UniProtKB/TrEMBL annotation:
Gene Ontology biological process terms, A to Z: superoxide metabolic process
Protein name, UniProt field: Cu-Zn family superoxide dismutase
Family: Belongs to the Cu-Zn superoxide dismutase family.
GO molecular function, one term: metal ion binding
Organism: Kribbella rubisoli
Classification lineage: Bacteria, Bacillati, Actinomycetota, Actinomycetes, Propionibacteriales
Lineage: superkingdom: Bacteria
């Protein structure tokens, strides 16, 4: 894991140990070599891929509610499950609840259509009918309060394929307001 990835993961509170802690008796009986008595070994799940971004939001509509705002997004896949966390700051012009989603295309300032449709596992796999729900897409709904900040997180039962993708924030009417490009490490 690169230093940049560690920094982004720490910034949004994703960096931590993934695993389960056994009870004291189980820990004593199953202590791996090199783990002192009285300490617990915590197994760590391997990370399949990490996609992240940290920076100013690119505006998709003139004088949009996210002008001047920044965001951090981290997407960590473990096998067939993915955890995603989005944190937006500096959005003093935006109040209310917004939706953000993983899109199939790039984030291009001023061109919301460039981001393409939502990333949907039915579409990627060629399944019909296409269902749009939290099991097949990444939905990150968040509320911006008086501080101009908002956070969302989700876990989905799939690992998105790497590519030139983006997180798009939709305005309160559903229009594409801002985006952030994703980079896979």
């Amino acid at each position: 894991m690169t230093g940049r990835v560690r920094g982004v993961l720490a910034a949004v509170g994703v960096l931590g140990v993934v695993g389960a802690i056994a009870g004291p008796m189980a820990a004593a009986q199953n202590r791996p070599p090199g783990v002192p008595r009285g300490e617990i070994a915590i197994p760590v799940a391997p990370v399949s891929s990490v996609a992240s971004s940290n920076g100013p939001l690119r505006q998709l509509e003139p004088n949009g509610p996210f002008r001047g705002a920044r965001a951090v997004v981290v997407m960590v896949s473990h096998g067939a499950r993915t955890s995603v966390r989005l944190h937006v700051t500096g959005a003093e012009h935006a109040r209310g609840t917004f939706g953000a989603h993983l899109h199939t295309g790039p984030c291009v300032a001023g061109d919301g259509a460039a981001a393409g449709p939502h990333y949907n596992t039915d579409v990627i796999a060629g399944r019909k009918p296409v269902r749009m729900d939290r099991e097949r897409e990444i939905w990150l709904d968040f509320t911006v309060g008086p501080s101009g900040a908002g956070t969302a997180s989700t876990v989905v039962p799939f690992a998105p394929k790497p590519g030139n993708r983006s997180i798009v924030i939709h305005g309160t009417t559903g229009a594409r307001a801002a985006c952030l490009p994703l980079t896979w490490d």
